[in-house]
Amino acid sequence: MEIMVVIVIIGMVTAMVMIQFSGNSRDTELDKEAERLDALFSYTREQAELQTRDFGFRINEHGYSFVVFDVLANQWRLAEEDDALRARDFPAGIEPTVVVEGRTIVLDNRKKEIEDFSPHVLIFANGDVSSFEVLLRREGEDKKARIYTDEQTNIQLLLPGEEEPKGPPVRAATVAR
Q1: What would the mean pLDDT of 45-58 be, rounded to a whole number?
Q2: CB-CB contact of 147 with 134 (8 Å)
Q3: How many whole angstroms separate alpha carbon 133 and alpha carbon 146?
Q4: Residue 149 to residues 110, 154, 164, Cα–Cα distance (Å)
Q5: CA distance linking residue 85 with residue 106, whole number of Å
C-alpha cells in the first residue's frame, strides 16, 4: 500500500512538471536569433568606432550580412576579414520585416548579375546608426522579436511578449519645479 501511495505521488509530481514545461510557449529559436542579431549590431558598432570605418547591414528574406565601406575602392564590400560578421541565414520559418528611416524595405532574394553590397542600415565610424527596425516573426504566428533604434540611436531589443518601455521620450527635457 505504501509503495502504491509513493508511485501515485511521483506520478502526480511528474504530471505537474510536464504541464509546466508544455505550457511554456516561448519560441527559443526566434529569441536566440533576435539576441544574436542584437549582439552583432552592438559588436559592429564597436568595430566601427575602433577601426574608424563605416559598416552596413544588408538583409534579404532568407538571411543577412554585414558590409564595410572600402575607401580605396570607393565601394561597399562584404566584411570577410571578421568571421563574426559573416553572412548568416535565418532559421527555417522565420520571416524578417525591415523598416529603415520610416520606410518598409522590400526584401528581394533574386540574384543580380552585378553584386550590389549597398547596405540597408548604416553604422557610422563615430558610432551613430541610421534609424531602423527589424522584426523577426515565426511564419504563421503573431509573436515577433523587435530590434530597433530609439531616439538617441541606441539599439534596443524586445523579445516576444515584452513591452516597450513606457514614459516620456528619452530626449524630453524634465521641468524642475
Answers
A1: 92
A2: yes
A3: 7
A4: 28, 5, 12
A5: 23
The reply to whether the predicted model has a pTM over 0.70 is: yes
Burial class (CB in 10 A: 0-12, 13-18, 19+), 79: buried
**Structural domain boundaries of the chain?**
27-158
CATH superfamily of 27-158: minor pseudopilin epsh domain (3.55.40.10)
Residue with cell string 549597398: 118
77: CB partners within 8 A, 6+ apart: 67, 68, 70, 117
pLDDT at 124 over 90: yes
Give whole-number Cα distances, 8 to 16, 19, 20, in Å: 12, 16, 18
For residues 123 and 67, the answer to whether their CB atoms sit within 8 Å is no
Do 125 and 52 form a contact (C-beta atoms < 8 A)?
A: yes
Beta bridge partners, 121, equal: 57
Residues in the chain: 177
